[in-house]
Amino acid sequence: MVMIVNIIPNSLSGETNQDSEPSLAVNPANPLQIAASAFTPDPMGGPNAPIYVSTDGGQTWVLNSIVPSRRITGDISQSFSGTESKLYAGVLKFPARSGAQTEQNLLRTTDFLSPATMEVLKDSTDQDQPWAQATTVRGGADVGKEKFYLGYNDLAAPGGRTATVDLSPDAGSVNPNFDSIRIERRSTSGQNGPQIRPVVHDDGTVYAVFYGWRTFSSISKRVRADVVVVRDDSGGADPDPFAALVDDDNFAGVRVARDITFTWNATLGQQRVGGDLSIAVDPNDSSTVYLAWADQRVAGHMLHIQRSTDRGATWSQELLTITNGKNPALAINSESEVGLLYQQVADLDTNPRWETHLRRTTDGLAWNDLLLATTPATTPSAIPPQGFQPYLGDYDYLMAVGQEFYGIFSANNRPDLANFPNEVSYQRNADFDSRRLLARDGVTPVPISIDPFFFKVP
Amino acid sequence: MSSSQIDELRRRSTFAFVGTVRRLNAAAMDAVPVTDNTAVVTVDEVLQAPPMFTDLAGSDITVQLDDAEPVQEGQQATFFTTGGIYGTSLAVQEVGHVEGRVGAERAAELAAMSPATPEHQTARLQKRIADADVVVVGMISLIRFPSEYNRHGPASEHAPLWREATIDIESVEKGELSQDEVTVIFAESTDAEWHQTPTFRVGQSGVFLLDRQEIPELQIEAYVALDPLAYQPPERLDSIAGLIGEPGEPAGTS
Lengths: 458, 254
Prior knowledge:
The complex is a heterodimer of chains A (458) and B (254). With 458 residues, chain A is mostly beta strands. Chain A has one domain (3-457): Neuraminidase, CATH 2.120.10. Helix content of chain A is 0%, strand content 49%. In chain A, the strands form nine sheets. Chain A has a five-stranded mixed β-sheet, with no helix packed on it. A four-stranded antiparallel β-sheet of chain A has the order 2-3-4-5, with no helix packed on it. Chain A is globular. Chain B has helices spanning 3-12, 104-112, 118-131, 237-243; strands at residues 15-24, 38-48, 60-64, 76-86, 90-99, 134-144, 162-174, 181-187, 205-215, 220-224, 231-232. The chains are: A mainly beta (458), B alpha+beta (254). The interface between A and B is large, with 64 and 51 residues. β5 of chain A pairs antiparallel with β4 of chain B, so a sheet runs across the interface.
C-alpha cells in the first residue's frame, strides 16, 4: 500500500509558496528519520532556510530552519551518511553574495533535528545544481569513515570541462578536505550540462553521469550532447579518478548516447526543460546499473531508460521511453527491484495535466505503473513575480532503503482525491469535500499552490 | 531596558508577542528536542508577525530561550523572536525579551511593522528610497543587451540574463543626473533567484529607484534595478516624493 503525504505542516496551513524542486534523504541507519527539501522560504522571514524533517518514517513532518541560506533554499540536495543522524547537503544560497551569480555551500549537521544552523564545510561561487551522496565505509582500512560526494556543474572550472565531483574521504572529521575531480575528459561547447549525478555502492564502486555538451547555440539555445557515464572502483580514490570506463575514442567515460539534442530552457507544462539524468546501482551487484536520460524528439521531450550489467562498459537497448516526461529518478531496492519515478504531461494540447508515476520492474522489461498524482499543468501560474522557474522542479528524488522505495515530488496541491487516485493525506488543513485548502483556523480559504509530496511504497 | 535596546530587538526579530511562561524545560510539540533552554509559552497577544501568524493568541508555543536573561514559570514578558521549527505548533528562537507587556505606544509600533501592513510597506519603500542612489520618473524607450554582455557565455539556470533599459527622464526626484536619459541594468530571468526583481518593457513608465553598483560579470559599474521595489507605477509618484528626504528605517523582514 502506497503512503502519500503532503508534507506542509499544519501550522503553515495558510502558506501559498511555490515549494518546487524537492529532494529527499532517508537515514539508512534509521529509516524513520527522513529529511526533505524544496524551494521553501522560512515562514517568518528569518535568517535561515528550512528543511522538512520526519522521525516517524514520513507520516508526519515539521519544518526546521537550519540551512544557512538567506531568503530561500535554492537548489539543494541532502544525504544521510548512515552514521548516527549525520546529514550532509549541498545548497545554492539565494540570493548569492554580492557579485556572484551563485554561491554554493557544502553543509553538515550531526543532528538534523537540532535547531542549530548547519555547519558550512565549503563555500564557493559560480556553481550549479549540487547533488549530494554520503555514505559510511563498511569495510577495509577506512571502515567507519564517512565519505561525502557532491556532483555539481562548476562554471568556474578551467577549460570548459565543468562536470565536477567534490569528494571528501573523511567528511566526519573536524575540518574535512574536499578534492574537486573534473570528470569530463573531452572537449566541450564551453561547459557541461548542470546535471552531474554520482551514485555510490557499498563495495566502493562509484558511478557518475553527466551531459557532455559538445555544441551550444546561443541563438537557438540548441544543445548537442553526449550522455556520459564514468566509474571509479575505489570510492573516488583511483590514481586516475573516475577513469575506469574508457570509450572507443580512448577517452575516459562511456558515451551511452551520442549526439542527442534538446533546447535549453524550453518549457513543458510550465516547467523549463534542459536535460534530465538519473543513475542507480544494484545494491546486490555493483555491475548492474540503470540510467535515465532525456532529449528532445519530434514526439516531444523524451525520457529513455537503459541498463548495463557489465559495470557500465556496454548498455542495453532502450528498456522504456516516456514521451513528454520529466524528472526521472531511479532507485534499486534490496531485492534488486528497480523503481522509476517520473513526471509526465498528459493531454498536452487539450487539457494538460502533470502525472506523477512510479514504475517498478524486476527484469527491466515488464514495468508496473502506479499513478501517484494527476494534477492540472496550467495552475497555479509560473509567471513572475508570484511564480518562477523551476515550476515543479528541475528534479525530484527516489531512493530505496531495504525493500522500500521512498520518494518525493512537487505538484498542484488542490485537495481533490481525483488528483490522487491512490489516496493522499494532508497535514495542512484541507477539505476534500469542497476541494479547498483552509488556513490554520479551519475556515479561511487558501489559494492553491505547489507543495512537496512524500511517498513510501513497500 | 532602554528604548534603543528594544529597537534593536525589534530589528533582529520577525515575531514579537506578549506571552506567559507556562513550563520551563518543556516543549509544546514532540518534534522539538527539550533542553534547559526550551519553554512552553502561552501567546497572550501577537504584536508583530507575518500575516500567517497573527492569530496565535491563546496558543501554546515553544520558545528556545536566550541564555542572557532567565525567565520564570508564570512570568509574563514581551518576547522578540525569529522562526525555528514549524509543525503542529511553532518553536521560535528568542532574540530577547522585555519583562511584562511593552507600552501601548510601542505595541502599536510593533503591530504597524508586521509584514503586509500598510505601515510596513511604506517603511520598506522609505528604506528603498533612502538606499537608492537616484530616483527618476521616466519611460523605458529602449531595451537591449548590455554592450559588455557575453551572449555566448555559460548557460546556467540561474543566470540573471542581464538586459539594459534606457529610461527617458522626465524628472529627477533624488540624486544627481544631468542628462535626459539614463541606462539601467536589470535581470530578465524567471529563475527563483531573480523572479522578484523587476523586468521592463518598452513604453513602460513609472518611478525608478536605482542603485549604482559594480557588476563583475559585465565588468562595469552601472545603475541597476535589482531590488523588488526598484520600480513603482506612476501613480505612486506623489507618495514617493513625500517620502524623499525622510530617513529610511530598517523595515525588518519583507
